[in-house]
Amino acid sequence: MASQTHSVFVTGVTGNIGGAVAKLLREQHGWDVKSTVRDPDSPGAKALAALGVQLLPGSWDDIPSLVDAMSGIDKLFVCTATHVEDPGLEQVHAVNIVRAAQSVGSIKQVVICTSVGVFSHQEGDKAQHSTFFDKVMTAKRVGERAVTEDSPWKWTILRPAIFMTNFLAPQVDYFSPGFRASGVWRSTMTSETPLALVLPEDIAKIAVTVFGQDEKYHGRVLGVAGDVLTVEDALTQLGDKTKRSYTPYYMSDDEIEEQKESLCFTVAEKSLRHMADNIDLDELRSMADLTSFKGFLEKQEELVKLAYSG
Question: What span, in angstroms and rounded, lies between the C-alpha atoms of 297 and 304?
């Protein structure tokens, strides 16, 4: 008996996560995939179109255009972007996407991808959180509520951990300022708190598994990581690959407080110490073939060595 065919609308299809979801849905299941794009002539858009992804005009700021683009779909993947200059814009976009989906009326399942930081986020608690983190996680929480509250569909929330690709250039200079030059990785972590890491492609694998088993994962909130290890172990593995020595620096609470206005979570947000508390690696590994940090370093050896070559 042939497997059932579905039609999925994937937001952020030219991004790392959305693009990987669209690719897997087409290649593994042959499902119809639709999305909106700003520039259909971009290399990423053209590659997706070649896979059979239907790319339509539309904007997350324009609900009617989203309604038109979602016509006929029965599944939806929501993954909105953080806007550094205006974090609140993300929640506007998420709510617009959900309102459009409700108007379409044919959608039976929604998977939303947010952040592992939502687990430990206490909305509006400025004593506990850095300012930027609070704004970003509030926006992501609003998106989750839009999907789950009084919803007519089955839903699942994916909350991915820190991207392994943040150890590559140029991302590493934002998330770990000065690390490449000094070899010292400053963070709000402690020597005991584990670091949860994930590849964007592996988030997509989990999403596709969830799409294929909507009953099983309905109402679930899944922390998503491919590996959980101490900071020291991560730096040792990085050092083995780059032939350099790296040292962790665990910031004191006073030092973290001084960084409260930083846009970089790793030096401003203490709640990252709890990021691995809601990661069930055994379950995740039963859902998909996931990449360890060591495996990532091997797979991206050329880019890793280029980033840390001095």
Answer: 7
Chain length of the chain: 310
Token code pair at residue 290: 């996931």
pTM here is 0.96
Q: Token pair of 268, please?
A: 């401003």
CA angle 301, 203, 119 (to 5 degrees): 115
Q: What is the pLDDT of residues 120-155, one digit of tens each?
A: 887 666 567 888 889 999 999 999 999 999 999 999
User: By the 8 A CB rule, do 79 and 85 touch?
Assistant: no
Phi, psi torsion values for 75, nearest 5 degrees: -140, 150
Task: Give Cα separations from 268 to 42, 94, 98, 164, 188 (angstroms).
Answer: 35, 26, 31, 19, 7
Burial 204-213 (b: 16+ CB within 10 A, else e): bbbbbbbbbe
